[in-house]
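ugh ok fine here u go
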Amino acid sequence: MVDSLIILFDQNEQAFTSNGLGALPDAASCIVTEERNGEYEVEMEYPLTGSHFHDIQKRRIIGVKPNPYDDIQPFRIYSITKPINGIVTVHAAHLSYDTSGSIVKLFPAAAGSASAAMSYLKNFSVPSTPFTFFTNVGKTGTMSVPKPSSIRSLLGGSDGSILDTFGGEYLFDKWKISLLESRGANRGVTIRYGKNMTDLEQEENDTDFYTGVYPFWYSESEDGGLVTLSANNGIVNAPGTYDFVKIMPLDLSSENFSKETTDSEGYTTTIEKPTEAELLAAAQKYIADNKVGIPKVSLDVSFVMLAQSEEYKDFARLETVKLCDTVTVEFEKLGVKTTAKCIKTVYNVLTGKYNSIELGEPKSSLAETVSNQGTLIEEASDKSYMERAIQNATDLIMSGKLGGYVTVTKNEIYIADNKDLDKATKVWRWNSGGLGYSSTGKDGPFGTAITSDGKIVADYITTGNLDCSVLNVSNIHGDSILVDTIGALDGINHKSDGYQYIKTGLLGKDPRGMDEYGIAVGKITTSTDGSLDTTQGEYVKITSGRVSFMQNNTEVAYMSGGKLYIANGDVEASDFKFTGGDSIKAQLEALAESVNGNGTSSLSVDVGGIGWLKITESSSSLSGSAVELGSTGGIRIQNIGDGDIFLQAGLAKIQMHHDTGKVTLSGLDATPVFG
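structure:
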């Protein structure tokens, strides 16, 4: 039976019920850190003179109690530092981290429950895993595995993981992994929050802290409008006492307030608009569900520091708390109280006591498990985006503790995924030329780098605020581009031909000599002062109340004040129309029908491309009975020589020749020729 504080086991140990390779009573320190759904590791300091120093090797297992209450747990050694002052530091991760080495090729079908997903992990792993899996999480969902993934990543830490899909809290116990609805309990522990002590770290952030809400409902429907509360200036205060006021606008327009009413005649009407009483009830429910008026708890209690202080008695009961337990927190100053989870414990194996515990909102390095349910205000700010990016970076860097090799040469430092640099693929390389990362080996290429000439090379850069004098980009992707000053976006330059195709801000002077601001689009050149060079280029200029079409130094057309002005050009259209009336073509056809006198729709009017106005029978192709009025002065029936006057009535034909001045008559009893 194990009766020692720290036991060293062989790497192939399965039971952990013996003293293994031996106890380690000469360890200088041994600390177990466990986070809710996150880190679970041991850090041990061991002297070179220790009886089992040479037995401590990578892949072997350290067995220790992770807290005052649970049985011994196994932690596999992954790192042993070089000696400092005769002591090495040993890092070990819980045995459950071994699931990183087992692959699930694919789920045979989508898992609709956590239980089904856990069974897939067991039955479809390669190689087969020695771990067993259990869950009592009842939430349903849909989880699939579209590509081969490690068991650990499927447990949590990736989009669509078991934790991400079904929620819960993990309990790692030797070879058994359990996903529980709630791992902890409420043991009746209450602490007072708000003391300002150096040995007690509090995060005080009132960014999303409000003392009340201003509820409203709005609809543009016929029987809608704006509904607010008439009492207390429309404000609903959160319970508690505050020395400041911070009110949040609460849009309840999407809430369902519909109800049916029946009048005296039996007609039923559906009313969407809430009453003030309904609006008030909805606001009060929101305050309760979202803990408005209660600060978010973030409390790191260091028992090592507190032990000798007067305040220790206020926090001593926290030593009975286990990971994931719920603690009641009183805010005496505000007159309110709330609950918080124990989300991290740091346990001293040698003393058998906690060094510290952390209370706060549940968080995880495996996956984010808590969503802000019922929150009506979406947080889409740069800050929330940066928080996610920072968390991702933190997770990657912290996971890097579990592997990697550092090689120091005369001129360079390497951090790689293989001890043999010639075999390594993922490599950080640092020398006097800069710092670079390669995913293809130590000789690059380095797709991420900071070089000694002051340049940063990266495929993807996440930042909060970017200050620069010149920003040269190929493409900009985003929801919006916000410009704080006129002219901040000063155009997009096409380097191959020297033209600027978009210019915003100050364009130059208007005819009055005043500064003219707007947008110019097209082939643009600028003068030395940055204004438009109007002596060349073709572009459209948009200013306040005017759209101008520019060619060289001339405004050839513009639209302004409901008027289209064309200084010099052609208007072409297949069928010109005027607002409020018929087209020109329709009006001419009506005129032709009126002249025809039969009131039928047998005539068609067309404008020819060479300037002819042609009136024909609808069935004619201008080869039968037609009247053509030509721009060259000809009046004719049938399509013959330009400028001739040709008249036809039955068989009688008269043609006046414009080139000879003669008149030809045919189809008559006599055929005289004048000339």
